[in-house]
Structure formats: structure tokens, C-alpha cells
Amino acid sequence: MTTLTTPAPVVRRRVARTLTYLSLVGASVVVLLPLLVVLLTSLKTERQMADDSGALTLPDSLLNFENYATAFRDGDMLAAFGNTAFILVFAITGTVLIGSMAAYAIDRFTFRFRKLVVALFLVATLVPGVTTQVATFQIVDSFGMFDTLWAPIALYMGTDIVSIYIFLQFVRSIPISLDESARLDGANAFTIYRKIIFPLLKPAIATVVIVKGITVYNDFYIPFLYMPSDDRGVISTSLFRFKGPFGAHWETISAGAVLVILPTLIVFLLLQRFIYNGFMRGATK
Amino acid sequence: MPRTRTTDPSHATEKVARPSAAAPPPPTPRRAPRKVRLWRKLTPWLFLAAPLALLIAFTYAPVANMLAYSFTDWDGVSPELNYTGIDNYIEIFTRPELFRVFFVSGYYLAASAVQIAAALYFATILSFDIRFRNLFKGILFFPYLINGVAIGFVFLYFFQDGGTLDSVLALFGHESDRAWLSTSTSANISLAGVSVWRYMGLNFVLFLGAIQSIPGELYEAAELDGASRWHQFRYIIAPGIRPVLSLSVILSISGSLSVFEIPYIMTGGATGTETFVIQTVKLAFQFNKTGLASAAAVVLLLIILAVTWLQRRLVPDERVDLV
Fold this sequence. Notes:
heterodimer, A: 285 residues, mainly alpha, B: 323 residues, disordered N terminus
């Protein structure tokens, strides 16, 4: 065994580097291990679960998708994905239209009460939705939207100030000279919004669609509160109902959880850059 | 609506590009016909109609109603209600079992401190040159994107008797068959741990973004002056991310007070893990005490507004104003 004497600072730097990597690997294990165990559990048979071999054992076969079939069929996951998709389409379309219209009106016009309107939107960001549901419930109910898919759609559309903010920043960066040359050609305000502003907002629209999409897909509180019926389940609430009938069937519950996580993982891998930027912009508004 | 003269500054005009703010306003054109002027005044409101209607219906009306309900004994269903003055508020602050839920927030506050420290550490080391940087960044951020119910189930299995955690401990020779969620203290610590696992990634990405927006020349100059990594962190990174840091602290405090999802999904608020919001939801939708629940929600809202206001006073950030 030969030892090479290396100068002290180099040794110290090497130790520091090693420790840095160790901490990163450690953190990755903490993040991934609970998820991997659930993935493994979802591939185990009922018999294997019963013989109590522990959580960290490999399943007998890595291709045992029976639990997924059970979860999908008995857990009404197909209807849940359908309802979620329906809500996503309407809520996102509404958010994009409403946000861009509000941003256009606020940035491109001067009118009486403009400051008041802006203040109304700003103050609303300080009110956490969680606190007001007690009273929101009565309002949603009085519109006759309780236990329909329109309740979450209206709430997602109507309480999203962050999107308006993102659109505002973008509208502001579009030169006003574009509006003016269009107006000289005889375009009115609606035409300018439709033909000039809206198409130029593409990057902002992409950001809002992604951030809003992930938020809506993951939301549990609103569907849980406003859509108690079994056939109005979205992915969150349908998965939550696994708790009862599948009580101790962890292999089925795990399969359901994996089914819900998978689309998120795929979207994340495809759109990483947009997602980071979107959430950054959304949070540091 | 009274007729306004076109020269009246308060009437609606579309924005005009001007060379500078100091430039004199362009001469007003000849008066447009009255109909056209009315249209012009209405235009911004046509665009704002839907956004404002939704904002009022789902944010301001609920807040106003909530305030009104909080002074009554309404059950949310029956047509009759009595004004009870501030009785609901007195009840919240004097009945120990209603007040106790505030102590549960303490666990989450402590967890937030751990979370911000960890996020700061990882953001700092990943802003330097590290192999597999994007992979580590992705792994650390991904939990934030996962559905809350799925996270709840993943960790129910993680903490259960003979589940993931017990198996890992057994690997290290520590035989324990504990149900981690069965006593109040260990359940709350476990749940707070889950919230660190879930939200650390968001803080981390925010810090990373702030660190990367610091100009690179600063580091180079520091390197030339022989500054150590620690000094670079202390004198370049820390001041550069102060606004984002204070924002994270605020989000953490209001988040710790309004924890709902994870404990509700995992324990349903059993074994002393009930949080303020779980209690409010139960009061309103299980026990039909809309009045009391509204008072509780008003208290929470006031606390959150106070914390936000305090942060604005302590750390005035150079916010770009909307107007």
C-alpha cells in the first residue's frame, strides 16, 4: 500500500467535496425511499403482503400489475380521471381568459376607480382560501353549484390572483406602439386584445397553464368539500376513499397512489424548465 | 351618469405611448360623438366585468359574510339565527380544547425552521459547480408537485407498524415495532416531518433562483480576494436572497397556522394532531356550528394579516407597484 502525501488544503477540500456529495445523496435517499417502497408494495401479491416479510423486500415478480387493475376498477379511477380532466379544461381556460382580460384592462386603460380595482385584486392575495370556506360554502350552495363539477371550476377561476399578476407583468412588456398602429388601422379594443395582446402572451399562458394545472390536479380541499357524491370524485377524493374499503390492503392503496403520482412525474420530466420558472414566478409575485 | 367633457382627466382613455412621463399630454382631438365616448368609457369595464364579479363573489362576499356569521349562533342550515355579540370569540379564547390546536402549530413552525435551513443549505451547494446538478435539483423539488392524498398514503405506510421506517431502522439493528402515529408527540413530529419532506423543494428552488440572479462577477472578485466559501455565502449570497428569505418565512408562518391536508388525510386529526383548520372545518361541516367556525376563521385571518403586515414593516422590499 502506498500513501501519497498530499498537502493539507487539498485534503480539506476533498473532504469537503465528499461531504457535500454525501449530503446530496442522503437527501435524495430521504426523498426517494418512501416513494420507491410504495412502488414495490404496489407490485406485491396479497399473499406476499400477508407473510410479513417487511417493507423493504422485493416483490416476487416485477410485472405483477394486478393491484393496478383492482385500484383502477374498484376505485373508480377512470371516472376520477375523467372528472379531473373536465375540471382542468374549464378551470384553466377560464383562468387564462379572465387573467388576461383583467391584465389588459388594468394596464392599457386609465379610468375612474382604476386604483381601487387594482387594490381589490392585491388585497385578495392576502386572504388564504382555507379560512373563508365556511362562508364560501353558503355562496356556492346558493348558486346551486353544490355537488356539481362547476363548484370547483368557479372557485379555481375566481380566486386565482397569481395568474392575473403573471399576465400583468407580460402585458406591460408588450409595447404600446403595437396597439396604436392597430388602432390607426381601425381596430377596436376587442380586436387589439384578440389579435395582438393575446397571441403575444403565449409564454405567460404556458406558465399559467402549467402552474394552474398542477395546482388543480393536486387540490383536495375544494373537491372534498363541494363534491361529496361518489360519482363526482376527482383523483384526490377518489384516492382518499381508498381508505375505507381497502383498509389494510396496502398493495391496492399503493397502486392507487402510484397511478396518481405517475402523470405528475411524466409532466415534470417533460416540462422541467417551465415548471421551475412558473412556480418561482408564482411564489415571488 | 353625468356627461363629462372630453378634457376631464377622469374619463376613460386608452393608454398612449409617450416618449417620457414628463412630456405634455397630446392635444385632445376634436370631440368624438357622444355614443363613441360612452363606448370608450365602458370598454375597460367590459373586460373587467367577469374578473371582478368572480373576485367579489368568491373572495369579498365570503369574508364579509364570515364576519357577519361570527357574531351569531347560526348553524348554517336553519332560517333562524340570533346575534350573540362577541360570545363566539370569547369561547375560542377561553375554552381550552378550542385553544389547544394553536399549540399543534408549534410543531409545524419548528419544522419550518428546519425546512428553510435545509433549503438554504442545498440551494447554496447546488449553485456551485456540482456533478449531476439537475438530477439532484429535480429529486429535491419533485415532492412539492405530488398530490397531497398520495403523499398522505405514502407516509401512512412509511410510519405504520413494520412499515418503511421500522424496516430501515431494523437494517441498522434497531428493532422497533412502533406505531409512530399512536402518541400525540410522535404523531405530530412525524406529520411535521412529512410537511418538511413535501415543501422543502419549493423553498429550495426559490432560494436557488435568487442565488443564480446574483451577478457572477461578485464571486470571481471574491475568489481573487481569497474569500472562502463561507465568506462568499456570508457576504454575497445571504444579502442577495434576503427578500426571498423573508417571503419564505412569511409563507411558512401562515402555512404553519393553516395546516390542513396532510394531518386530515393521515390521522383525521386524531391523537392530538388536530390543527386549527381541521377544527374549523369540523365545527362548520360536522357539528353545524357555522357561527363559532366563522369566528375561528376570522381569528386565523386576522393573525395571518397581522403577520404579513409585520413582515412588510420589518423588511420593506422594493416591490414593483402594480399601478
